[in-house]
Amino acid sequence: MIWFLLVVVLIAFLMGFFQLPIWIMYVVVIVFIVLILLRNPILFGKDAEKILAYLKKSKAPYMQFLYYFLQGDLSAAEQVMGKIRSKKQKQGTELMLLMERKQYRQAKELLAQMAGHKSKWYALADIAINEGDEEAFNKNKRKISDIFFLNILEVDKAVYYGEKEVAIGLLDNMLPKLRGYKLLTAVHYRKQILEGRI
After folding, report:
1. Distance between terminal CA atoms of the chain?
2. Are 78 and 90 in contact (CB under 8 A)?
3. Residues 182, 185, 186, CA angle at the centre, nearest 5°?
C-alpha cells in the first residue's frame, strides 16, 4: 500500500510539473486502483491454493489469523489474534474461534456486543441450527440478504441433519461462482466435511 501511495505522489508530481490536465490524474489513479484490486487474490482470486499462499505470505495479523484458522491450527490463530488492532476484526476472529469450537453460549454473548451485520445474523442463524431452535433460525435468516450466507446456511442445515452428501453437493454447485475469500471459505468447509471434522 505504501508503494502505491508513493507511485501516486510521484505521478502527481510529474503531472503537475508538466502541467497536464487533472482528468488525466484521475484516470491514472483509477487505473492503479483497478490493477491493485484485480491483483489481490482475497477479493477476486479464482484459485484457492493461490489465495491460501497469499494469506501465508502476508504480514498483516488478520491475514495470518485467516491462514492458521483455515489450516485448522486454532492455537496459532489464537496467538496471532492478539496482534490484531482493529476492534471489529478482533471480534470477528474471536467469533470464528468460538463457532469453530462450538462454544455457542460465549459466541452469543460476543454477538450481543456486535453491531448488526450479515455475518452477525449468519452466526446467530448457525447457532440456532445447532441448538435446534427453528424459530430463531428463521428470524435471523430473514435478516440476511447475501446469497453466499444463505447458501452456507443450507449447507449448515444439511450437515446438522447428517446429510453430508447433500452438503457436499450444495458446496460443489457454489464453488464455480465464488471468488476470493468466499471461495476459500467454501473449499475449507468442503474439506472439513470430507475429513469428518464437522
Report:
1. 38
2. no
3. 90
CA atoms of 102 and 98, how far apart (whole Å)? 6
Q: In the prediction, which pLDDT does 55 show?
A: 87
Residue with cell 447457532: 127
| Cα separation, 109 vs 153, whole angstroms | 21
Contact of 80 with 72, CB cutoff 8 Å: no
For residues 126 and 108, is the Cβ–Cβ distance under 8 A?
no
Tens-place pLDDT, residues 45-57? 788 888 888 888 8
- On the question of pLDDT at 31 being above 70, the answer is yes
Q: Render the chain in DSSP notation, one character per residue.
A: -HHHHHHHHHHHHHHHHTT--HHHHHHHHHHHHHHHHHH-HHHH---HHHHHHHHHH--SHHHHHHHHHHHT-HHHHHHHHTT---HHHHHHHHHHHHHHTT-HHHHHHHHHHSPP-HHHHHHHHHHHHHHT-HHHHHHHHTT---HHHHHHHHHHHHHHTT-HHHHHHHHHHHGGG--HHHHHHHHHHHHHHHHT--
CA distances to 27, 29, 60, 147 from 97, rounded to whole Å, are: 43, 38, 18, 23
C-alpha cell at 193: 466435511
